[in-house]
Input
Amino acid sequence: METPSSSNGRLTAFGNQLVQVHNWLRKELATLHDDLGSVADGRAARLRDLRAHCLTFCSALTRHHTGEDGGAFLVLAEKIPELRPVLEELAHDHDVMTGIIERLEELVGGVGPASSPAEILHFQRELDGLTAIMETHFRYEEKRIVEALNSLDMPEWREAKPPFLLSSN
Output
């Protein structure tokens, strides 16, 4: 993913980059739903895809959120203190999603060709819960902090993208 820059070489649009990462995560989550649908339909060949994709997606989402909590949110709270209540809400969402991610990682190991419809449904419900909170969270975050991120000039982020802007392992 290329980073746009202005004529003075400053990285531009950290917030726009955040939206790009969110869109990548949305796409990956949709693929995970497709993988689960294939397994639920009895196409066991997709089981390996489901497991690998679930663990990869969960890891990427966790890295994104821990990068925000430990980096971007700290910078925003320091530079734009009026955003602190928003950042606290977003961090709380991260905690909720962490619990769901942990359950998904545990459940995906038990999904297989011999899984009962109830086991697949349990995984589906957790995945649906993650999808709902993630989308609500992303929309709120995009509405409330993209402009603030776009206003930042972070020299250290020019050298190496911070974890919250990385979209793959």
Residues 1-11 have pLDDT under 50 and may be disordered. The CA atoms of residues 29 and 65 lie 15 Å apart. The helical segments are 14-40, 47-79, 84-108, 117-151, 155-159.
